[in-house]
Structures are given as structure tokens and as C-alpha cells.
Amino acid sequence: MVKAVVLGAAGGIGQPLSLLLKTNPLISELSLYDIVNTPGVAADLSHIATPAKVQGFLPADDGLKKALTGADIVVIPAGVPRKPGMTRDDLFKINAGIVRDLATGIATTAPKAFVLVISNPVNSTVPIVAEVFKKNGVFDPKRIFGVTTLDVVRASTFVSEILGDLSLAPSIKVPVVGGHSGVTIVPLLSQSSHPLPTSLKGDALDKLVNRIQFGGDEVVKAKDGAGSATLSMAYAGAEFAEKLLRAAKGEKGIVAPTYVHLSADKAGGDAIKKEIGKDLDYFSAPVELGPEGVVKINSLGKINEYEQKLIQAALPDLATNIEKGASFIDAPK
Ligand code: NAD
Ligand code: LMR
Predict the structure, then answer these.
(1) In this prediction, what percent of the chain has a pLDDT beyond 70?
(2) DSSP assignment of 272-311
(3) Which of 60, 72, 206, 315 has the lowest CB atom count within 10 Å?
(4) Going by CA atoms, what residue is nearest to atom 7 of ligand 2?
């Protein structure tokens, strides 16, 4: 029996993500929480002929607590999205407080749940969740994840386009590491499961890397003020949740890049710090998942000179974003 909870379930991501979770046979109970509209979304989804029992909750009558009671996995897509011209960091002002309050609810009601943070800026909101958990004495770095799967999904798609065959997209694996914003997104294309043409270098390679790093902007621009990626994010969030649930059930060898506190696996985390040459607390790396969450943080593998430069370019922003999130919560260190 697995209970999944979506916080921000009535939103652009929340609705399609809840739909995908409702169709996941590993989930037996699905609770939807938002400040608006969850009774309607829940009633709608509840007619789908799959096992999960769906319920909707609003803030009134202790709705957050009721939604979270007994949760095994909590996904957070609550908060405002970007408009053209904004950075993800511009969302901090509003989303930091939203994520802090939701994290407080999880820490006090379902402290053992896996927490999947989608709300931007992920580089800072994950440290916020971690600090709230520390403050409540329930921090377990193995169970808190920043969802960076959309970057991985985009890398697969864009590489398949370069290879001229979109049907390859589902099987193309490219590790994307670092963080989740602009230059902190670092695709390790030299490790692509499907090698790129050797002719792809110079400007053409820069262009592909830039497209993966700024894929979010492509959608924000196309939506022209109506928000950012929602459907592709729902797909990516459901994919990561599915991997975690399969690993929790005991399936071995499931590895996915995700943004975690590097103490989740001390040896692996220390090795990452060595590889990047900086003592950061958080980094998105390929993580092996298991019943307790993080089993092992894997090495970044063989990185070429070009990728090492991308990593070095990511570090200053990443350090600033992490500090901004962590210091938002006044937790004992
Ligand atoms: P949206 O505005 O469509 O939906 C957000 C939902 O959050 C709304 O339904 C709103 O009512 C709800 N909400 C606001 N405050 C809340 C609170 N205190 N408690 C519960 N729910 C609350 O936005 P969206 O397009 O779904 O995007 C949501 C977030 O996800 C944004 O911050 C966006 O930047 C981020 N995002 C992250 C990724 C990623 O790769 N990690 C990808 C896309 C979007
Ligand atoms: C994305 O990568 O699509 C999301 O982080 C949303 C955004 O603001 O770009």
C-alpha cells in the first residue's frame, strides 16, 4: 500500500502529474492538496478505473495535515511559475515561503515520506526543505530529492533530434548533473548512451548544451506569459516518482540524476566534492535509489575538459543559490 500526496495539485503541473500518478498501479492512495480547486480535480480523477483512491483537500479544517497523514511519497509542484524575462531565482520571494510552510507540514505529519521538490528555484527550495526538517529534528538526507528529471528528459529528446531519429528518444540516456537553472545544468554529453556525431563540436556543440541548459526558457517564451513547462514536467515528475517507488519495492540498480544533500551517501558525496573541486552541500548527481531513498551517490564518471569547464561555470551560482535557501530557514546547523 503506497500513499502519494501532491502539494499544489490543482496547478499547471499538479493536475497532469496527479493524472499520471492516478494511473500508476504502484499507488493505492492519492491525496491532492492545494489552496484552490482540489475537490473538483479529485472528483474528476476518482472516476478513472485504476486502484488509487483519490481525495482532495483544501487548507480549511486542517486539510494539509489530513492530506499528509500516512504519506509515503510527497511531490511538491506548489508555487508560482516564471514569465518571460524572469529567472528562476526571481521566484524565490514567493515560493520560498510556500515551500517552507509545506515542508513544515511534512516534517510534522509525515517525516519519513520521500519528498520530491519541483517548485523553483530548485537549487534553493531543496535546502529550504532540508533546513525545515533539521529544525524539526527529522532530517534524513536520503529522503529529500530535487527533481531535475526534466533536464534529463530534454537531453534525451534534443540528442535524438540531432541524431535525426525521435524514436530513439526514450532509450537515449545522458547524465545531467549540477543543479536546475541555466548554467548550473550540466549535460555530460560525452557519456551519452548514443554517441553524438564526431562532427558535433564548436558552435554546434555549444548550441546543444545551451538548448539543454535553457530548455525551460524556450517553453516560457513560447507560452508568452501563460507560465512555464507543465506537461513535460508532469511526465518527468511521474517518471522520477515511478523510479523511486520501484526502488522502494526492492528493485535493484535504479539510477537517476537528482539534486540531493551530499551527506545522503558520505563516501559518494565526498567523491563528488573531489571531482568538482568544491565543498558544496548539494549537487545533482546520478543516484542509486533503494527502499530508504538514496543508496549511493555515483561518481560523475569520465568527464572531458569541455564538461569540466561547464561544471566550474556552474559552481558559483550553485553555491549562492544553496546559501540563499539554507539561510532562509533559521535552523541549528
Ligand atoms: P501553477 O501556477 O500553474 O500552479 C501552482 C499551484 O500551486 C497552483 O494551483 C496554486 O494554487 C498552488 N499553490 C500556491 N500556493 C500554495 C500553497 N501554499 N499550498 C499549496 N498549493 C499552493 O504553476 P506550475 O506551472 O504548476 O509550476 C509550479 C512550480 O513548478 C513553479 O515554481 C515552477 O517554476 C516549477 N517548475 C519546476 C520544474 C522543474 O524542473 N523542477 C519544471 C517546471 C516548473
Ligand atoms: C523548466 O526547466 O522548465 C522549469 O524549471 C520551469 C522554468 O522556469 O523554466
Answers:
(1) 99
(2) HHHHHTS--SEEEEEEEEETTEEEEE-------HHHHHHH
(3) 60
(4) 216
Grid-cell match 545531467, residue found = 176
Q: How far is CA 3 from CA 18, 28, 51, 297, in A?
A: 12, 6, 12, 26
Q: What is the whole-number distance in angstroms between the Cα of residue 127 and the centre of ligand 2?
A: 18
* CA 130 from centre of chain: 14
| Separation of alpha carbons 263 and 265, rounded Å | 5
88 CA closest ligand 2 atom index: 8
39 close to 107: Cβ distance less than 8 angstroms = no
Domains and CATH numbers, the chain: 3-146 (3.40.50.720), 148-328 (3.90.110.10)
Question: What ipTM goes with this model?
Answer: 0.99
Closest CA to 281 of 330, 333, 230, 222: 333
For residue 52, count other CB atoms closer than 10 A to its CB: 22
193 annotated binding-site participant: no
61-100 pLDDT, tens digit per residue, is: 999 999 999 999 999 999 999 999 999 999 999 999 999 9
For this structure, is 180 an active site residue?
A: yes
User: 82 by DSSP, 3-state: which?
Assistant: coil
- In Å, how far from its chain's centre is CA 172? 19
Taking the alpha carbons of 292, 30, 35, 61 in that order, is the dihedral positive or negative? negative
- Compute the distance between CA of residue 330 and CA of residue 276 in angstroms, rounded to an integer: 28
